Every structure is written in structure tokens, then in C-alpha cells.
Amino acid sequence: MSRTIRPLIAIPARFSVTTSALRFAAEVTARALAEAVWRAGGEPVSVHPADPAGHDVAARLARFDGLLLPGGGDIAPHRYGAAETHDSVYDVDDLQDAFDLEAARRALESGRPLLAICRGLQVVNTVLGGTLHQDMGGPGQDHRHLRHPVRLAPGSALAEITRADKVEASCYHHQHIDRLGEGLTVTARAADGTIEGVELTGGTGWFAAVQWHPEDTAHEDPAQQRLFDALVEAARRPRAR
């Protein structure tokens, strides 16, 4: 009996100071993300964020069929040229930043299928020369612990993937795109104008990026699950290497 081989989807791990199950500090991948990739037919693989200065990230990614850049702590503001750091910036990790930025850069250069979520979208925007608003304004104005409608641009890749012109998005972020990175186009916005999705013009491979967390509701919302389905489908296709 023939078996379908699951495409390998790399997910950079996130550093955790404590984990009750392991008793020690750990590197973790959100279970909801792994399950969404698994439901889509992919094999989720947690990847250690080793220092790119001493380890070839392109070579490490070469064995994978796709890359999923997940949410996480804030990117250090100096990474996108900010002279000052807002008091609300949290969980900055230089090693995490260095690895994620290099992984995004290499995926974009190689055309490896890339799905970027929340921080992941911000990483891609930074790699392409964009900037971020460091804080959306505090309670009542940020997008933490919030579900709200997001409108998708007609004819956009996001609209085609989700098969919708509007989705109910689960958000947890206090930062968002300020200046768009080179080649990026806004294809999704919240009612308050916040950029919630972007696409890349002229990219060499499959790419989608959203500011919200589709993994939160993918188990019950087909539109959200389709983002992971599309990533895995793209990862199955032959790609020039």
C-alpha cells in the first residue's frame, strides 16, 4: 500500500522560561499550530533557533518543504531602525530575532512556501525594509484577546485561499505595520484600519502573511484552516532548487 509522504513544515521554536511538563526552560511550538499543519496533511517540525552567524540557515531550511513563521514576542525596535524603544515592548530575544529574520530572508530568496503569522508578518515586513508601530495605544485600542471581522481585498490571494471576503479573526498583538516593506501590498484590514494581511508582489514562491492568529480557530473555522491547507499544498509542489 502506498502512503502519502507528508511535506515537512519548519516552525521556528519559541523560547520559554518555564514549562511545567518538562520542569525546565524549553523551546516550544504552539500545539494549535502543529495541529493545524497536521490536519492540512503536513508534518510540523520544530526548529532550533541557532545563531545564524555560526550556522547556515539556508542549508538548514533546505531539507524542509515549507516554513511557518509563528507569533511570539516583540522584535527589537533597532532591527527596523527605531532609535527608541516603547515601554510596552516585551519578550525581545536577540537570538530569536536574528534567526527568524534570516529564516524569512532565505525563504523569500529561495521561493520556499512561507506562511507568516502575527510576529511572523512583522518579521517579513522588517526583512523587506518596513517598520512597525511599537504600540497601538493600550487597553481598548490594542488587539489582544480580541476577535473581530477583517475584510479581505477582492481578488487577493488571501480572499482566494480563504474563499471569503471577510473573516472573523482571533488577534493577540499590540504592534502592527507602520511603513510597508518593499514589494508588500495590503490585502486585509480591520475596521479600525489596522493592517491585518499582506501579499508580496513579484515573489518567487507561495507566500501569505496575516496579523491575526488563524490557528486559534482553525479547528472550527474552515476559512482559517485553509491558510494551513494552502501552505501544505504549496509545499507538495515541485520547486526549483
UniProtKB/TrEMBL annotation:
Gene3D superfamilies the record matches: 3.40.50.880
Classification via Pfam families: Peptidase_C26 (PF07722)
Keyword Hydrolase: yes
InterPro entries documented for this protein: Class_I_gatase-like, Peptidase_C26, PuuD-like
Keyword field: Hydrolase
Domain of life: Bacteria
Signal peptide (residue range): none
Single Gene Ontology MF annotation: hydrolase activity
PANTHER family in the cross-refs: GLUTAMINE AMIDOTRANSFERASE PB2B2.05-RELATED
Protein name, per record: Gamma-glutamyl-gamma-aminobutyrate hydrolase family protein
Source organism phylogeny: Bacteria, Bacillati, Actinomycetota, Actinomycetes, Kitasatosporales
